[in-house]
């Protein structure tokens, strides 16, 4: 009896629903927007860099460039596979720590991001790249260690020149241009710092210079009295440091206070406003290299500089233009492949021809290294980074740099 009653009620409800459906306009499907147009599909791009701690200023500026690129791409109302898409940034703090980086890498894989911009540090990018490779997710990293793209993975690409390119240019520069004969090298034992120092040492020796001492510290140190006292005893023409500005700045100050006449020479992690602030007047005469052209000479550098300052209320420091171009190149590969599926667009990314802020010829070799790899050398003069010379990368001939390392 109860079963019969429930069955009767069920038929009545079904009939009522049928009548209602016949007399009412069908609601838009969940995947459609109010006007009947398809709702935009969200395409999530991961980003990882140090956003806290002593290297946070690198990561924040890097992230700003990525953010601006995604905002610009979304403003263009992009479509992929005939459907509108909205790019979304999933930014995470890897704390410049390899263990944290690998944990984040697995999180990105689980969250089904379609690509990664980062990691910033080589020591983070290298272990994380294996996880992304296994998942088939492309990554465009700021990491400059040669190891990053030498692993044989198909998913690893760079935003800047490698340490092989930068170290070899700077090693030759100090011998041929600065006329340095006796060179001391110090590094922080990170994948970045040691890798850059190793390449620099090879180039110094190949150019006929002599490495009279090789020392190392760590990426947390701030007291270099013992190392510098030992270095002073060999009277070097230059002191090269492979590492970040949190160490190179106090090192520059302590070198001057100990009476070392040799200039401090370093890589792009020293060519920052933070180095100038931390080192103060003792920054004077320090030399650093940076990938590519100076900002005002980049193909779209002036426009980028103005838009960046308007958006973030600060000046461009070092890394944001490269983060911007990496993001735009990743997005262009998806659009060219007409797919956000990493398996579909990764081969297109490998053959990308992108004209961006930093380069009008952003292309990769078969390892994922940038082909257009010029280096600009800067020197601190009057408390500011001033261009000494731009080498390679299609740069116009520059005026001769200082003839002596001690100048």
TrEMBL record:
Family: Belongs to the leucine-binding protein family.
Protein name according to UniProt: Extracellular ligand-binding receptor
Keywords of the record: Amino-acid transport, Receptor, Signal, Transport
Biological process annotations from GO: amino acid transport
SUPFAM superfamilies: Periplasmic binding protein-like I
Signal peptide annotation: 1-21
PANTHER family membership: AMINO ACID BINDING PROTEIN, LEU/ILE/VAL-BINDING ABC TRANSPORTER SUBUNIT
Species of origin: Pseudogulbenkiania ferrooxidans 2002
Residue ranges constituting the Leucine-binding protein domain according to the UniProt record: 42-381
């Amino acid at each position: 009896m109860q079963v019969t009653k429930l069955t009767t009620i069920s038929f009545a409800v079904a009939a009522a629903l049928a009548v209602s459906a016949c007399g009412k306009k069908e609601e838009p499907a969940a995947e459609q927007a109010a006007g009947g147009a398809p709702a935009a599909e969200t395409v999530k791009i991961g980003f990882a860099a140090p956003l806290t701690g002593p290297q946070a200023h690198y990561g924040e500026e890097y992230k700003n460039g990525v953010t601006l690129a995604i905002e610009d791409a979304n403003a263009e109302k992009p479509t992929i596979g005939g459907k509108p898409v909205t790019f979304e940034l999933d930014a995470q703090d890897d704390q410049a720590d390899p263990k944290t980086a690998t944990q984040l890498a697995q999180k990105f894989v689980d969250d089904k991001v379609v690509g990664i911009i980062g990691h910033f540090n080589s020591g983070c990018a290298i272990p994380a790249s294996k996880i992304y490779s296994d998942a088939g997710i492309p990554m465009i990293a700021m990491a400059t260690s040669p190891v990053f793209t030498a692993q044989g993975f198909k998913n690893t690409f760079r935003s800047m020149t490698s340490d092989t390119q930068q170290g070899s240019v700077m090693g030759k520069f100090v011998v041929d241009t600065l006329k340095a004969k006796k060179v001391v090298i110090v590094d922080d034992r990170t994948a970045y710092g040691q890798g850059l120092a190793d390449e620099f040492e090879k180039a110094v020796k190949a150019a006929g210079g002599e490495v009279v001492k090789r020392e190392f510290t760590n990426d947390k140190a701030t007291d270099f009295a013992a190392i510098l006292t030992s270095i002073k005893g060999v009277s070097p023409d230059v002191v090269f440091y492979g590492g970040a500005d949190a160490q190179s700045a106090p090192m520059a100050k302590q070198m001057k206070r100990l009476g070392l006449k040799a200039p401090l020479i370093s890589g792009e992690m020293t060519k920052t406003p933070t180095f100038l602030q931390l080192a103060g007047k003792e920054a004077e005469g320090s030399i650093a290299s940076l990938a590519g052209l100076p900002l005002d000479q980049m193909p779209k550098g002036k426009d980028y500089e103005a838009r960046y300052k308007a958006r973030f209320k600060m000046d461009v420091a070092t890394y944001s233009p490269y983060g911007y171009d990496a993001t735009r190149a990743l997005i262009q590969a998806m659009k060219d492949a007409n797919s956000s599926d990493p398996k579909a667009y990764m081969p297109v990314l490998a053959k990308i021809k992108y004209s961006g802020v930093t380069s009008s010829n952003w292309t990769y070799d078969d390892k994922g290294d940038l082909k257009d790899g010029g280096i600009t050398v800067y020197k601190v003069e009057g408390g500011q980074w001033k261009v000494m010379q731009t080498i390679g990368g299609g740069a116009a001939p520059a005026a001769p740099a200082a003839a002596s390392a001690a100048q």
